[in-house]
Amino acid sequence: MSKAAVRLLVVLLLCGHATVAGAQVTPRLLQKRSGGLVANFNLGSLATPAFERKMRSGLTQRLLYRVLLKESPGDRTAAISLRFCAVTFDLWDESWSIECTTRAGTRRITVSRYSSLLRHVAALVDLPFSDGVAISPTRRYHLEVQVQLNPISRKLLEKVKLWLRQSEKGSQFSGYMGSMLSLFVDKSVGGTDLTVNLRSSSVLGREVLAP
Length: 211
Prior knowledge:
By secondary structure, the protein is an alpha+beta fold. It contains six helices and ten strands. Strands 3, 4, 5, 6, 8, 9 and 10 form a seven-stranded antiparallel β-sheet that branches. Strand 4 and strand 5 (95-102) form a beta hairpin. The radius of gyration is 21 Å and the shape is globular.
């Protein structure tokens, strides 16, 4: 093999390695891990011009995410998860302070770009579900997500915070399933600045259980 051919082969191998190393692996919609079931879902339609105006207002904006894991056939609710975020834009520093709470705990972060903000609030990343969720390999599953911006009802928010505190202590799935479902049909909300309802594509249970 000539020196030119050898150099070309090395370049091709290096390019191929760089492509593999730089490739982004899309997380699965649902995945069963040792710590439990988690969900990853892009909430792109949340990012409207009205949403951006709210996020840049300088006032604290509150986001409530209510996530149902549905099983088909039958449309049975197999699991429930909540997420609550508070977002404040600093008009002087032009940065956002984000605080999000799930049953796994609270995460705080500061970002300076709107695109970075959206990666945190317009997507579900490793959102944990309740302990003890049983996934059937032969059934299909999808997510139904409702996002509310600034829900008016303080009563509802107190219920959410109470449930999140209880779930952090490791409450069993069967113990709070009924009370959690009531949060999804609560009639005392009274209104929000914005409500977005989303539904994911479905996935087969055996794909969720795959390592």
